[in-house]
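Reviewers asked in the last cycle whether our approach scales beyond single polypeptides. To address this, we selected a multi-component target totalling 522 residues and predicted its structure end to end. The input consisted of the following lines:
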Amino acid sequence: MRDMRPAFGATVSDLVDRDDRVAVVLSEISTQFFTAAMRAYPDRVVNIGIMEQAMVGVAAGFAMEGFLPVAHSLSPFMAERPYEQLKLDFGYQGLAGTFVGVGGSYDYASEGGTHHAPADVGLMLGIPRMEVLIPGHGDEVDRLLRATYANAHPTYLRASVTSNAASHEVAPGRLDVLRRGDRATVLAFGPMLDRTVEACEGLDVTLAYATSLRPFDTEGLAAIAGEQPVVISVEPFYEGSAAPVLTEALVHVPSRFVSIGVPRGFIHGYGTSADLDADLGLDVPGIRTRLRAALDA
Amino acid sequence: MTTLEDVRALVARATGDEKHEESTTSTLDALWVLYERILRVDPADPDAEDRDRFLLSKGHGPTALYAVLAARGFFPTEWLDTFMEHGGHLGSHPDRTQVPGIEASTGSLGHGLPMAVGVALALRAKGLQEQRVFVLCGDAELNEGSNWEAILLAPERRLGNLTLLVIDNHSSEPTMPPWDARLGSFGWDTHLVDGHDHAALERAFRVRQPDRPTAVVADIPEGEW
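The resulting structure, written as structure tokens, was:
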């Protein structure tokens, strides 16, 4: 299985080779994946040091000159620290670029709360025009990056250390229905898929998979929800982050929406991300318990 | 050829932003010298690939820049009459999507200089060696930490095509000068000039080192705004 972080490095390095409009701005993180690209293209693949605000500003400067910039850091230092640069330099200015955060919500669990970023997706959705991608596998990182790097939008890709065992034929805005049931629609995002599939065993539910929230197949979800008034979203980020998008699909039908995600609080524990999943009810037993509660409510 | 008096008359037509009046008057001389004598820009083709770039990083008090651009023909001078008004094109902070000749949408302090570094890097990556990037920061704006990321970075990247113009109108409270010495210690080629002296400004703007960025600190003493 290919991890998402090296997959990001390999895909972007390939795009740099293929497309001379691609520029990469790094701030120390993941430079090991770009050694060859920095040597081959020193003017457009640059590591500027640990300065994330400048990283986004410099990327905007490249975009102003017609390049397709890619910037990257750990999720809190990609989505949160330079948030105003993402909002203004790219969003307000109408520029396009790709921003890859790695670390998910608490993938680097033992690093503590300074390295957690479960708010990332909610924040990115708060920037108009910002596309939000949530791959669940390294191969999906590759597909989503190739599909979006040259579009006219700023795009945030949430890479995580946690992956599903197998990849899917994902695309931005695609909603895959994996199986059909009658009692509810369970929608899993990115790396939550495998554990959600397991948690749904024996439950009479429709199971769908998505790797993007903007764009999102609102009509597709509306069609499913029209038959099943209970929609349960299983999210790897702060609980309810997807609600503004998903509830838009449900406005025309009487429905109930339930979000299962990271509780909104700071985490002060350590260990592995699996340890924290269990603490927070986001492992298979925890998700199953909450699914049953939602179905029985 | 546009005279400074022509431009002052245009500035006077853009009313309503008096709280930024000192920003406007402090930058006017330097902007007029830049657009009249230095920058290679074409109002008929404001996005020409071979143009020089100017970014008003601080974004505050943009009527001086609007007036200079209008005088050069980037947009109709009538636009100044509806400055800050509903339905007008010109806000109290510039918007690149609305105004020809405006390179960057600024107003939140500390954004323009990092973007200018990116533009300078991008010009190099495109092989445009003659084109230059000018960026204007206020002395108070230099309190923002994001600027100092860029100030560290530009000399490390040997950006000879970048000139930082600091309008030091001593508006920062607390005061943190001397800006020329501070920038020099970070590796910039610095020049301290009288911010109202057109010949001195022009001389400083014409300096271009092959392998390090230039900083022109234009001093505007308190009360001489």
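Chain B has seven helices and five strands. We regard this as preliminary and will revisit it once experimental data from Aim 1 are available.
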